[in-house]
Write a structure and sequence with these properties.
There is one protein chain. The chain is α/β, with parallel strands linked by helices. It has 17 helices and ten strands. It has a six-stranded mixed sheet, sandwiched between helices. The protein is globular and about 60 Å long.
């Protein structure tokens, strides 16, 4: 069930490919770039270039194309820097910006956590998180219309590149998840901001379990602002590039938007999610699930029991605090968490078990929720020295 996709789809945002049996192995083969009957010059440039990020311009429109299809458009520090530079340039000189991924599999499956873990708490590892979060903050406050075409796998770093933008267009190929707890991390890239703001306790459920939202589910959940058939994405892209006035973007997106054919897959259990995940601790959630006794509750417990106990407690606190903070404040908090996870956490062990040795048997330390002390959880959230804090 596990495949080469593991090498790519964990983002620094990060992400559980163990939760992705349907696409396992995808990264092992050549991924063809989408073509249309009359491909745009930008799309043609993407296929011809070996650059991992293509920053293209068409009159007064800007576009960023993530161009690593064989790696599911996973991002690294070099890519983050290129994206940020182009974002800053376009904000001052363009009327709108589109961001998309090359290929038919992914918008962006995250980043290379293996390299970060193997490097340890180095300046470069910290730079990845610091510069990625700075980029997330920019997207969240972008001054011109920002349209993310999340057509395919969208996890971790890919979520950070899209969810904070004004417009996010999902398709039938979208596959969203924030499964950081499976590798001993936490839902970062602003997860502490957007997850608590989803309906009811849905965000906490997604953050703790890493549950996958497929296709229209991303729209139903509120992750995407619009839903469009994947076959019409080239037409939408062309329409946006030919849009005479940025004020017409909302109407244009609405024109291509269609209601997903299937209802929200979690709708039948939303009441259970809201009840069981309303507890004031992770232990309380587990007790509620035990008391619920349904098949859904049993499967959810099984899923949670595979996650890092420390990560779950940190995530619970993170989302609790994030619900009362601005995006910038959330990212500052998350940078503290990221640095602590580089220093001492289950992160390295999670990446070893799922990405390096692939034995799928992480040895979490502590191994149980009961053994994760309140003091240990609080340590992750402590302020860094003033010179090391994230400045936004």
């Amino acid at each position: 069930q596990q495949g080469p996709i593991h090498r790519f789809a964990y983002a620094l945002g990060h992400r559980s490919c163990g939760h992705l049996p349907l696409v396992c192995g995808a990264a092992a083969t050549s991924t063809k770039t989408k073509t249309t009957s009359s491909p745009s010059p930008m799309a043609f440039a993407a296929r011809q270039s070996s650059s991992s990020v293509l920053a293209t311009e068409s009159s007064n429109k800007g576009m960023i194309i993530l161009n690593r299809p064989k790696a599911l458009n996973a991002i690294n520090l070099e890519m983050v820097r290129k994206i940020y530079k182009h974002l800053k340039k376009c904000e001052k000189s363009k009327s709108l910006l589109i961001i998309k991924g090359t290929g038919e599999k992914a918008f962006c499956a995250g980043g290379d956590v293996r390299a970060v873990v193997e490097a340890g708490p180095t300046d470069e590892s910290k730079s990845f998180f610091r510069e990625e979060y700075t980029m997330n903050a920019l997207i969240g406050n972008y001054k011109i219309p920002y349209i993310a075409l999340i057509d395919g796998i969208t996890m971790g770093g890919g979520v950070g590149l899209s969810v904070h933008g004004k417009y996010r267009v999902a398709t039938d190929r979208t596959l969203f998840a924030m499964p950081e707890t499976a590798i001993g991390l936490f839902p970062d890239v602003g997860g502490s901001y957007f997850l608590p703001r989803l309906q009811g306790k849905l965000g906490l459920y997604l953050g703790l379990t890493g549950y996958r939202l497929k296709g229209g589910d991303a729209f139903h959940a509120g992750i995407a602002t619009h839903y469009c058939d994947s076959g019409k994405i080239p037409d939408l892209e062309e329409a946006l590039l030919n849009c005479p006035d940025a004020d017409e973007v909302p109407e244009l997106l609405q024109k291509f938007h269609c209601q997903p054919a299937k209802p929200f897959s979690l709708e039948p259990v939303m009441e259970r999610i809201n009840q069981t995940f309303a507890a004031d601790s992770v232990e309380g959630i587990m007790e509620n699930l035990q008391s619920d006794g349904s098949e859904w509750a049993h499967k959810t417990m099984q899923s949670l029991c595979k996650m890092s106990p420390t990560s779950m407690k940190v995530t619970f606190r993170q989302l609790e605090l994030g619900s009362q903070l601005s995006l910038a404040q959330c990212l500052i908090m998350e940078y503290r968490l990221a640095v602590r996870h580089l220093e001492c956490s289950d992160f390295k062990e999670g990446v070893r078990a799922l990405l390096i040795d692939k034995d799928q048997q992480p040895k979490w330390e502590p191994a149980s929720l009961a053994d994760v002390s309140e003091e240990h959880v609080q340590w992750f959230f402590r302020k860094l020295p003033d010179t090391e804090e994230l400045k936004l």
